[in-house]
Amino acid sequence: MEELTAEVIEIEDKTELIDNIMTMYGQEILQLVYSYVNNKEIAEELTQDIFVKCYNSLHTFKGKSTIRTWLWRIAINHSKDYLKSWYNKNVINVKNENVFDLKKRESVEVMVIRKDDEDRLVSSVMNLPIIYREVIYLFYFEELTIKEISNIIQVKQNTVKTRLRRAKELLKQELEDSVHGG
């Protein structure tokens, strides 16, 4: 699908516009939020909140970035706010569902092995501190460039590179420890 641009904001029917935005970006925003909160139900609730916030803030969109970047910034900030919230710090979440399930057409054995590897990788990513988790998610799962990540999370490109490097070191260490039982 084509990227929504500033001209689209001129649409007078905000409801139609938000429906288009939700259709285009709903799933990726859900996955982005999940990468922060690590809980499917909470990610779904926060995603709904994000689209309400987007709807209420459409008049503030100036067209300096794409709608997608603007929406991602809202989603990341909303997710971080949630993580800082009293509820998250004081209520233990029991469910740990994986939104990143990948469908493969392979033998059962290969699927089981791959699923185990993917689960270990996703679990390791989700155990990273949030500053590393967000850059890993955006770079590898969403395939964004260093520059795009820099714009979205509003840090310098060198900071993104440093966080990626450190995150990879942490992941490598954790995966090696899990393989060697340490």
Tell me what you see in this structure.
With 182 residues, the protein is mostly helical. The protein contains 8 helices and no strands. The chain has helices at residues 14-37, 40-57, 67-84, 86-90, 108-127, 130-141, 146-153, 157-179. The protein is globular, with a radius of gyration of 18 Å.
Rounded to the nearest angstrom, the radius of gyration is: 18 Å
Q: Level of helix content?
A: over 70%
The N- and C-terminal alpha carbons lie at a distance of 46 Å
Strand-residue proportion: under 5%
Low-confidence stretches: 94-106
Secondary structure category: mainly alpha
- What's the pLDDT, averaged over the residues? 78
How many helices does DSSP assign?
Answer: 8
- DSSP strand count: 0
Shape estimate: globular
Task: Give a short account of the largest sheet.
Answer: none
> What is the H/E order?
HHHHHHHH
Notable traits:
182 residues; mainly alpha
Give the SSE map:
Elements: H1 14-37, H2 40-57, H3 67-84, H4 86-90, H5 108-127, H6 130-141, H7 146-153, H8 157-179
Helix pairs in contact: 1-2, 1-3, 2-3, 3-7, 5-8, 6-8, 7-8
